[in-house]
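From the shared-data thread, chain only:
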Amino acid sequence: MTHHDEHDHDHDHEDEHEHEHGPLAELVTVRDWLRYAVTRFNRADCFYGHGLQDAYDEAVYLILHTLALPLDRLEPFLDACIPSDERVDIFEVIEKRAAERLPAAYITGEAWLGDFRFKVDPRVIIPRSYFAELLHDGFSPWIVDPEAVTAAMDMCTGSGCLAILMAHAFPNAEIVAVDISQDALEVAAENIAAYGLEDRIRLVLSDGFAAVPQQQFDFILSNPPYVTQESMDALPAEYLHEPGLALGSGEDGLDLVRKLLADAPRFLKPSGLLAIEVGHNRHIVEEAFPTLAPTWVSAPSGDDKIFVLEAGQLSSK
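Structure, as tokens:
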């Protein structure tokens, strides 16, 4: 085949794709595809609640990931030309996000909390938690000495992400990570193995504390399902790809929180600490537990999403 024939062959190949998908022949550079993706996501009315801020951030992430480029270096690649086979890959990813409303993390199979990467798939809720920022500083000021924590628990561990962050925040702690879903625990086990933490994090299949072996902990945190029924009924399409079990918890979203508050005292050391994330539901918590008087935590990305209780505050309830 001559060079000229080869060129024609490629051209025919491209025309086929152009016939199927208009953008493939016309969108040449990373910049072109970035513009196309943002427009496509905006027109599809995509919702961004899984860690990335908006259509632009999602487009950058998905394009860089699809091209196996460093996720934090867009600038040098903006004017790079994308060959036709890679255009097909990018187009398919954009369509999954826009047409199927599949969250980006399920398309790429990964999610990030700060610098920590986690494997995810639809067996687990996509990692997102105000705890991530707070564990970066060892949950200061509530935990004075991170090295003194020897036993900690991540209740409702999902992908294992917070248990892994706890293992890094509390270097001397043995960690118990609990979930009601065997599927979730299988994903968590892969993430724990990827970080080489099998000897420090123990996985337990349990509905709340029901099947957790009796032990007392310095610190128990939980990012449980807390979405109210009303909010569950109005969820954007993106959330419907996640396990419903990991999102909703009864009419007021507090069914599991009630169980945790009732059972936690048996699992806390006298000086132990319980911290629970409830998103925007502070007002619901205060109505449901008027005598509880927890401390509400400020995190860099949001105030009053997590409350903290000392063991002493719980035992009297």
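The first helix runs from residue 3 to 20.
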